[in-house]
Amino acid sequence: MRLLTHNMLACNIKGVTKGFPLAIEVTKLETKESEMNPDFLRHIYPKLDWKALHDAAHTLGLNDIPEQVEPAMLEDEDFLQKFHHALLEVHLEEGALICPETNRRFPVTKGVPNMLLNEDEV
Amino acid sequence: MAAVAHYWASCAGGLEFALLKELENLEGTSIIPGIDSYGGVQFRTTSAPQKVAELRSADNVYAFLSHHKKIPVDKESGMAFLGSLAGKIDWEPVMQLHRLWQETEEPDSSSGISDPLLTINGMANVEQTHVTPQRSFRVTGNRICKDMKKHGYTSMDAAAAIGDGMHELLGWPADMRSFNVEVLAWIIDDELLLVLALIYSGNKKKTKNLQNVSNINEPCAEVEDVEGSEQVKSTKKKRPAERPSRADAQLYSRRPYRKALVHTSLKPSTAYGLLQLADVQPGDIVLDPMCGCGTIPLEAINWLGTRVMGLAGDFVDTAVEAANINATAGESPGHCDVVRWDASMLPLRTASIDRVICDMPFGNRCGNHKVREVLCPRVVKQVVRVLRPGSGIAVLMAQSKTMKEEIEVNQKAYLNLQKHFYVYMEGLKVDVFVVRRTSEPAPTQQIVRPIKNMAKRKRDGQLTKQAALENLSSENPVQ
């Protein structure tokens, strides 16, 4: 799971009002290099919840993601590289996602989060 | 290479527009209209086989042989007509094209003709290929009755009659198992399309079917597909051992992400057609909430590369596993993540997704009618919630009577139906809806409440005991 996906996932247990962003529990990370596409990053930027990305990146030990981003930074190659790395290259292979409201734990195995709920949670 | 080749490209009926659009951009191509009953397009082109093989929207490409309307359907004159077909075909350019494709496929083979049996087993014996190539052929008949009751002949009869004619004219021996020329005869009512296969081997890297349902990957409802010989039939029953299934020898079988399949996997060519309808933009997140082996988002990134991000999810563990294998298969530079979830309760932020492209389960090999009538509207509600208001587009493929009403009446404020048409696949008629999300904000953040009596069904449609009890007691709306 990439942090871009994390930026969209939310806990949907019945009654939960603040199911986003999910906390991350890291057991194993993997970095898979990929080609950077600045155009994609510029388009995806306004769609992100930046604070959630920033916090998640820090949990994964990626401390070079700034807390605030100015639109001008999206022209800076160096920043785009860091942004690309955090958003798409680092994968959570093993670990868990945790609901901020209920502390429900969603396991991540082989890079796939299991977001299925139990009968009593829906 | 100035030769003009005459082709038939097949696709799901109703998605020809995608094929036509691609052919428009194929150099030296002219479309030949006139065949409407079959999904596909007839064309001539001067483009090389490599270029033709890049067509994404084609299921497969064949050398065009002939097309006839109003063919006799009674046994005697029908068989006579079919037997005379071979004599009416100019085989020279057809076999030239066949040779050209085999050379393109197997550049090492000095003979230019490859035996599918040998190459598939990885035993392409050098000595063998030096032997003067011997052509052997088979004819495969496929007969469908749409508006008429019955033909006077079976598919096997038809194949045999055409084969006899070919044998007499060309002198090739017929061989049902180890052939290197295959002619396909598709008869729909009193219309006949005759083509010659150009692709004889599938994905060389073996494709796994995680659901272990033989190796027939596509549902085959209501289509009578009779092989030309009893021999083939009996081996089929035993085990489809050495010979690859014909379903493998398709143009789309070569997609790099086609490593693992589930038994109702969508064809990549169909996925491409659906993507054409979604007007995907750079920076879009392309979601398939019921992804199966992930074909739709994986086709999106295979086609558009790093310009988009794919997101695939499914409920069934084998599907999730297959999608994950395909998503990490490499080669494609694009990004696609896989999540296990319930599409009727998507664990996604409201208004976070740009494009939803989803082929909901249809046919009788995946779920059943009752489950779908409950499931589909619930998925639509989730699609409404996760799509970005004002810009989101969804392409939904479904076989559900309630879908249209759900979109046009229940979700009227949120969805704008832009296009509704049918696609014909393996004899099934399936609805395709293209909807645009209106700028109306989504109802509420929360999950859509299941309707009374339809709550908490398992996938097999059985109401769980607990849910049945809850339904009786609790009637208060969620939050």
UniProtKB/TrEMBL annotation, chain A:
Matches recorded under InterPro entries: Trm112, Trm112-like
GO biological process: rRNA (guanine-N7)-methylation; tRNA methylation
Domain of life (superkingdom): Eukaryota
Gene Ontology MF terms in the entry: protein heterodimerization activity
Family annotation (SUPFAM superfamilies): Trm112p-like (SSF158997)
Family: Belongs to the TRM112 family.
Subunit: Interacts with TRM9.
Name this protein carries in UniProt: Multifunctional methyltransferase subunit TRM112-like protein
Automatic annotation (TrEMBL), chain B:
GO molecular function: RNA binding; tRNA (guanine) methyltransferase activity
Pfam families to which the protein is assigned, alphabetical: UPF0020
SUPFAM superfamilies: S-adenosyl-L-methionine-dependent methyltransferases, THUMP domain-like
Main location: cytoplasm
Coiled coil: none
UniProt-annotated stretches for the region Disordered: 227-248, 455-479
GO CC, one annotated term: tRNA methyltransferase complex
Keywords, alphabetical: Methyltransferase, Transferase, tRNA processing
Domain of life assignment: Eukaryota
Subcellular compartments: Cytoplasm
One GO BP annotation of this record: tRNA methylation
Domain THUMP, residue spans: 112-198
Name the UniProt record assigns to this protein: THUMP domain-containing protein
